[in-house]
Amino acid sequence: MERKFLIDNLERKDNDVGSTLICCFSRKIFVPIFFKALDQMDLPRDNIHLLVYDNTGDPSLAEDLKEACQSRLTDYKSVRLYKSYLPPRYKVSGTEQPKFAESKIFNIFEMWKDLAELVHTDTFFQLEDDTIAPQEAYTKLFSVLNSIPKAALITGISTGRHADPFHKVKLGVYDLKVCPRKHMHQILERISFDPETKGVVPVMACGVYCFAARTKPFFSGLINFTPEKWDIPYWALDVWFTRNMRNQGYGVYADFDVWCTHLHAAGNRINAFGKDQAVQKADMWLPEYDNYALDIEVCPKENKREFKPAPTWEI
Questions:
Q1: DSSP per position, 194-248
Q2: Is the Cα torsion angle 81, 140, 153, 237 positive or negative in sign?
Q3: How much is the CA Rg of the chain, to the nearest whole Å?
């Protein structure tokens, strides 16, 4: 089916007034959890355009999102629900790297291209469906964004997630080493930041789970970005996208005072990952094996932080 709005009460005269709140969904299970947390956030709702993006062909997810959006029509300046109708792309083939068009990141890239046309305000705030942001995340991240004129985005801190609540996870903010030959598009090393980092710091790349952004600088990351030709790893789409914003002359920053919870649905349980489950990790290219060594904990014997398993509950 053709991509379209399922709900749209945005008036043209208000297109560029205020800011936009983007909520991206691909999983039905997180809908009630996400909106319960969203309702508890400190938001200037009368000056926010809510844009819910359903990046699936699942009709049941669309129905749940319709219900959630319709019950909040009067809470925001406008409410829109957009559905991509894209089929899932998951390929399991051992250690083989799936082609871009066959991988799950294809739908994410298509979403970014859509959002570049759907966001009309100068700034926006984005949340993923499996991310629970702290109550003050919006106001804190926008305060930092407004203080750094050349910033494309300010991200909160989100970790990885896993089916095992005892798994140690990395942060989604990184330092990078990349191949100096521009045509190679090869990440040589990706190191996540130390969880004990303080304050607001510039980063070379980050995930896109919870952040405040300037619209044009953010979508400058799409300029000359052709992941289908670069043959990038499935875990590096947001890395290259945010790094490309820096290549366009904008800054990417992380605020270590804003910690999010990253949810993982595993069987009949949900695991909730955050700072207590985080360690510093590295991913490294091994040319002799033509592959990556992933998720290596940095100096584990020197890590004195107390590790706690992720909170988990039945669903």
A1: PTT--SEEE-SEE--SEEEEEHHHHHGGGTT--HHHHT--TT-HHHHHHHHHHHT
A2: negative
A3: 19
Q: What would the two tokens of residue 76 be?
A: 């925001």
Residue of 264, 276, 274 whose CA lies nearest to 313:
264
Closest CA to 173 of 148, 200, 147, 146: 200
Strands 151-157 and 251-259 come out as: parallel
CB of 211 within 8 A of CB of 125?
yes
Pairing label, strands 131-132, 261-266: antiparallel
In this prediction, residue 185 carries a pLDDT of 79
Name the E strands within the chain.
Answer: 4-8, 19-25, 48-54, 78-83, 123-128, 131-132, 151-157, 173-178, 187-192, 200-202, 205-206, 210-214, 251-259, 261-266, 269-273, 281-286, 291-297, 312-314
Give me the pLDDT at residue 94, please: 47
Q: Lay out the sheet containing 131-132: strands in order across.
A: 131-132, 261-266, 269-273, 312-314
Q: What is the pLDDT of residue 170?
A: 97
Six token digits for residue 55: 């990046």
> pLDDT value at position 33?
97
Does the predicted model carry a pTM greater than 0.90?
A: yes
| E strand or H helix at 114 | helix 105-118
Helix (H/G/I), strand (E/B), else coil: 138: helix
Q: Are 101 and 228 in contact (CB under 8 A)?
A: yes
Residues in the chain predicted with pLDDT less than 70, given as ranges, are 90-99, 182-184
- Tokens matching residue 217: 């600088």
